[in-house]
Specification:
Chain lengths: ~350, ~350
């Protein structure tokens, strides 16, 4: 992976994210506080500002990557980050709309070490709270007097449709036989589900800085490719683990029979190991032995090396996009630090 | 109920709705066709353009009341209805977003004599298709060069949040004991769930006609009060029926223990019949005898007369709002005809 001397350790990005949380948090909360009572309660719980009974808690445990990208992109292109605040909040609201609905759809019961909103308040309240966050995001942009707001709203709406397509594809792929899933389908799904919103965040920052169309597209490409790099890394962690840093146990995705990118790469590798893996995916993988064997087979089929190369390749593409949008490396530093922070977890 | 010589029979409104469907339909369909494949399939089914297997069908069976209100409001205020087309389509998309999600939330399996989308495609696909229709509505407005588009987008987003609050309140009221529900709560719920979008449709038409703030508010009031009048009529039909016209069987809402407005009015009437009704609502009402007895008790408690008076009162308020926005009765005729069409079903 490409790395810069200043950003590799992630200290700069961590500090930037903390500053972003401090700056965006009050605006985000003020927006959520405008929601009608019963919906507000679910939203305040989901974001981590309240317990289920309304007791105040420590506050959002999300990393605020997306708002940080909006503000950093605006700054990198000579814009005033403060004036892009509504766009930063809108992107974070959209991200949380997807989390609320995805948890319902995937029947996930835990997020950030707490029960998911639907598990606590029921499916109706979680679906409705998600809907309201999406509408609130759009409302913020539609009421924003900034000259870029309307184009940003159009771009964000198009991105939401892409996120929907990604989530739909994810569900559809999970239903299918592992050996019938192609790598192209998995990549398209990851692009829509993970890349689109990171790309949109960067594009919105560029729009709010008054950038031209080509620069906006390059910024979108930077965020999108960074998101894909992240997805490869996340899929590697889901198999070979990185428990010290993420808390995600080794083999978690394998035990869940997840069709992650390294798995599908291995299954479609045409190697003898592909058949072995298909057989393993046809049965339960509950014991450490079974999971370990699957991980070993995926590695033998080339899935691990391939995913690591893809992560590096996507990161290189991201940097290339960024260098077109922001030729001066010093000015691009914040964005590069964020991209490396997102993807550095196994490095 | 207030009536005008020209509109009472509903012929004018029926013709206007047919013209609206002809005019809006192609734009609505073109918008839906831009959705990604798997989501488009669910949306085309939901609107009635396709069967589950993709076979073309007769097309939308919805009445297109909301787009008709947008276009009629624009025309009544001297605007060009054609230029308000995107707003009309956006409002219809938002309406259908609520139908898709409400059917999931309420676990309703039938809509317009066909299986609901979630019953056919599953909860994930129906939730995602609803999300996508909402995002598509916002995208249409955000990409609309009309000078009113941004204010319309803000108003529509605020309306969606109100719709969410109405649906949330509806769920919450259904969970509670019938005698603990107040009439104010029911009215607030009906205002948010039914009145808000009809009001928003009229307000968007006014915005696209370049109307001032006061006129836009009056138009919102007209649509909103018409919506409430409709809700009272619909609740009356849900108890005493109007099978010839609507196909809704007598007592359907009672068998479902629905806390409709006449029921809550009766329960909170302070009459001896209120206690009788509470007792009936505490048990099953499956036989025609039980349902008939409940209907008789609600009538004795004053619930039927009250609801009829409220419907007439709301319609009078609607007409009052309309006369402020559009003083010339001839110019207001289309809108009046639509409002009377919506509420005329038992008259």
């Amino acid at each position: 992976m490409t790395s810069t001397g200043t950003a590799t350790e992630g200290h700069e990005a961590a500090a930037l994210l903390e500053r972003t949380r401090d700056a965006v948090g009050p605006h985000l909360r003020a927006a959520v506080e405008t929601l009608p009572g019963a919906i507000r309660r679910v939203a305040l719980y989901h974001f981590g500002w309240q317990d289920a009974d309304g007791t105040p808690t420590a506050g959002p445990s999300g990393k605020a990557i997306r708002p940080a990208l909006v503000l950093a992109a605006a700054r990198a292109l000579g814009g005033d980050a403060e004036s892009a605040m509504r766009a930063a909040v809108a992107v974070e609201l959209v991200h949380n709309f997807t989390l609320l609905h995805d948890d319902v759809i995937d029947e996930d019961t835990t997020r950030r070490h707490r029960p998911t909103a639907w598990a606590l308040f029921g499916v109706p309240d979680a679906v409705i709270a998600g809907d309201a966050l999406l509408a609130l995001a759009q409302r913020l942009l539609a009421e924003d007097p900034h000259p870029a707001a309307m184009e940003a709203a159009a771009r964000l709406s198009a991105c939401v449709i892409e996120l929907c397509a990604g989530q739909q594809a994810d569900c559809a792929l999970e239903e299918r036989e592992p050996r019938d899933v192609t790598l192209d389908e998995c990549l398209a799904m990851a692009t829509a589900k993970t890349g689109a919103l990171l790309g949109c965040a960067c594009a919105l920052g560029a729009l709010y800085a008054g950038a031209d169309g080509g620069t906006v597209r390059s910024m979108d490409g930077f965020g999108r490719e960074s998101g894909l790099a992240f997805q490869f890394i996340d899929d590697l962690i889901g198999i070979w683990g990185d428990t010290g840093r993420t808390g995600k146990p080794v083999g978690a995705d394998l035990a869940a029979h997840k069709k992650s990118l390294p798995v599908v790469a291995a299954l479609t590798s045409g190697t003898p190991a592909a058949g072995e893996l298909a057989a393993l995916y046809g049965g339960p993988m509950n014991t450490p032995g079974e999971v370990g064997r699957a991980a070993e087979v995926i590695e033998r089929a080339g899935g691990r090396d391939w995913a690591q190369e893809c992560a590096a390749d996507r990161m290189a593409r991201a940097v290339h996009h960024l260098s077109r949008a922001v030729p001066d490396p010093a000015t691009a530093e914040e964005l590069l630090a964020l991209a490396e922070f997102v993807t550095r977890r196994t490095h």
